[in-house]
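Long-time lurker. I teach an intro course on protein structure, and each term I like to show students one example going from raw sequence to a predicted 3D structure in token notation. This year I'd like something fresh instead of my usual example. Would anyone be willing to generate the tokens for the chain below so I can use it in lecture? Attribution to the forum is fine with me.
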Amino acid sequence: MGETRLVVENLTKVYKGGWGLHDVSLEVPAGCVVALGGPNGSGKSTLLRCLAGLARYAGVIRLDGRALDGSPEGREGIGYLPQNVGMPEHATIGEMLELFARLRGAPRSTIPLPDGFVRDDDAPIGVLSGGQRHRVALAIALLGSPTLLLLDEPVANLDEEGRDAFWSVLRRLRDERGVTAIVSSPSPSELRHVADRALYMADGRIVLHEEFEPGDPRDDELEGCR
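-- Reply from a regular --
Happy to contribute to a lecture. Here you go:
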């Protein structure tokens, strides 16, 4: 793994109903895949939204030494996949990919997914299944060769073939390009074949930090902390 890529200091997010995040601090090196676990409502999605610059917060976030301020310029180098993706029903896959390619100033050739991962360009979003829409959203998140990927349950709607293809891509991005990724999952042990470490959240806090090798039996300890 390389030098420190992501630094988070005292990240706090308060909603009207209570804490979203409470004094979260962490460091993640370049070329590291982090499994982010925790039950529903533990703060996983809120943390990813803050890191992506899509929610206001107190605290400091630094990416490759530069403090992020939530501006479009600050979000350069970040690929974000939300848990729920909304796309216009009438648009085609090609139109969605071209739109985001223009917004990011990146050619579609930067999407590192295998041929056939998404359907043909002329397929309307409205005829796609949930899994097929999710594949399009993953392609959008990977546009522009981001150095930090923030993925909220990225394989939740994919079939086994799609999961295997995506994990293979993520491992290659980590190993060949030094990409850093934070991948949320209700079951961190499911990511043992790709993740280098795991963070477990509860009540807006990080309550467990584990380093592990793929397939390390210590992954099961994360499951036992629920």
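Some talking points for your students: The longest helix spans residues 160-177. The domain at 31-42+76-223 is CATH 3.40.50.300 (Rossmann fold).
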